[in-house]
Amino acid sequence: MNSQAGRRQFIEQDTTDALVFRCIDDDQTEVTLAGANTVVIYSRSGSELVASVAVTSISGSVATYSRSWSNATFQRDHGLRAEWTLTDGATTFLRKQYFSVVRRAFRSQLTDADITALHPYITDQNQQANLSVYRLEAWEEIQRILSARITKRYPGRHGNVRANEDSIDRRIDDYPGNFFQPEDFRQAHLLLTLGWFFEHNAFGNLDQNQLRAEKFRDRGLADLNLAASDVQFDRDDDELMDVREENFSFNGIAIER
């Protein structure tokens, strides 16, 4: 779920991870890549971290650059930049991509089997090979909601915790994987996945699937609120869950769609 072409990229620090980019022409057609394709990596401040290097692989319109993202070179931050020089063998396409380096990717462990064990009947309605597309959309929604709530709780994407809050003066990031336990949001993920599934398999006029979509979505957002109301939150960013970091609430803002 982390390295999906066309989506915001979050690179996991101190691992071998892949940055991917899909080349789309101005007329919105995919460019079939061929020949020499390269990428340069820059820090948030604009300093060059990786000089022009050949991409690791290409597949259709997608270029992939895989490497070890060590803390010594790649500080955890938003706003790193990849400048891609891509070609179809005849035309050169210059593309810029901004991405983030994070401590830990925010990964769900929900599977199709977890969903169909409770709702086996949806396999008869599913026109996809599996439910992964719906799980992905639901998880990305949860990630965005939690990011917004961190920003709401600690205003400023890179603000400091106020001095009167346990005297911690550390940068607060807005990426959920750096702080939250993804397992806490399993039930919300399951319910929102069903909401996404039935919404995209509804045919309007208040058919049964549309009603199911609304029901599961309401339940999913309610469960997300419940899960976010009492969480462990690694606020000082030391990778330890201290007693003082228990019982934090991140359900203080309304969710709308």
Task: Please outline the helices and strands.
Blueprint (H helix, E strand, L loop, with lengths): L9 E3 L3 E7 L15 E5 L5 E7 L2 E3 L2 E7 L8 E11 L4 E11 L9 H7 L13 H22 L32 H14 L8 H21 L29
Parallel strand pairs: 1-8
Antiparallel strand pairs: 2-6, 3-4, 3-7, 5-6, 7-8
Helix pairs in contact: 2-3, 3-4
Task: Provide a quick synopsis of the model.
The protein is α+β, with helices and mostly antiparallel strands and 257 residues long. Helices cover 25% and strands 21% of the residues. The protein contains 4 helices and 8 strands; from the N terminus they run ββββββββαααα.
Notes on the structure:
With 257 residues, the chain is of the alpha+beta class. It folds into two domains: 93 residues, Immunoglobulin-like, CATH 2.60.40.3350; 134 residues, no CATH class. A five-stranded mixed beta sheet has the order 1-8-7-3-4, with no helix packed on it. α3 runs antiparallel to α4.
Average pLDDT, rounded to a whole number, is: 85
Kindly state the percentage of residues in helix: 10-25%
Uncertain segments: 156-171, 253-257
* CA distance, first residue to last residue: 22 Å
Number of helices: 4
When the domains are counted, the total is: 2
Q: Could you tell me the strand content as a percent range?
A: 15-25%
